[in-house]
Task: inverse folding
């Protein structure tokens, strides 16, 4: 039986709050890993990814990789791959992309719409769910591995310290 990890959560109000939470997530994932970003269209997954990339030192534009499926970022702190699988027709398409090459243990892989790649993706270290709550967003995150537990705990501490929760 696999270990069950606690669920953490906070609220975010506005784009800047989502970027700040992304910064905290990026700091929590500095050693790499696989993070699933879950939520409907317009919930702020790419905005959060922008914060993560800023934490890795990326200063340029961050676009949603909806049409390219993956955007690589070679940052001062290591590789970050931002996947958006929304337009993926079949998980087998990921094999043609050479999907397995992206999952270097030292790289951070942020994956939006991971359910569309089911069977072709590795298990996540951390899942972050974003949903609507009044005028803002409700975020919940849960580790799925021991590596993810370190990420989740660090993120919870950072959120508490910055007052985002």
Result:
């Amino acid at each position: 039986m696999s270990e069950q990890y606690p669920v953490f959560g906070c609220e975010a109000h506005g784009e800047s709050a989502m970027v700040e939470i992304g910064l905290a997530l990026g700091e929590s994932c500095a050693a790499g890993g696989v993070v699933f970003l879950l939520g409907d269209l317009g919930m702020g997954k790419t905005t959060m990814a922008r914060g993560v990339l800023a934490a890795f030192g990326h200063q340029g534009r961050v676009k949603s990789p909806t049409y390219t499926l993956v955007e690589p970022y070679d940052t001062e702190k290591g590789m970050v791959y931002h996947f958006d699988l929304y337009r993926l027709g079949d998980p087998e398409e990921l094999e043609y992309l050479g999907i397995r090459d992206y999952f270097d243990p030292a790289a951070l892989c942020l994956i939006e719409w991971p359910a569309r790649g089911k069977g072709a993706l590795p298990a996540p270290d951390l899942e972050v769910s974003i949903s609507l709550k009044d005028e803002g967003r409700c975020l919940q995150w849960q580790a799925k591995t021991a590596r993810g537990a370190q990420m989740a705990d660090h993120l919870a501490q950072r959120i508490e310290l910055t007052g985002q929760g």
Summary: The two ends are 32 Å apart (CA to CA). The first strand starts at residue 7 and ends at 12.
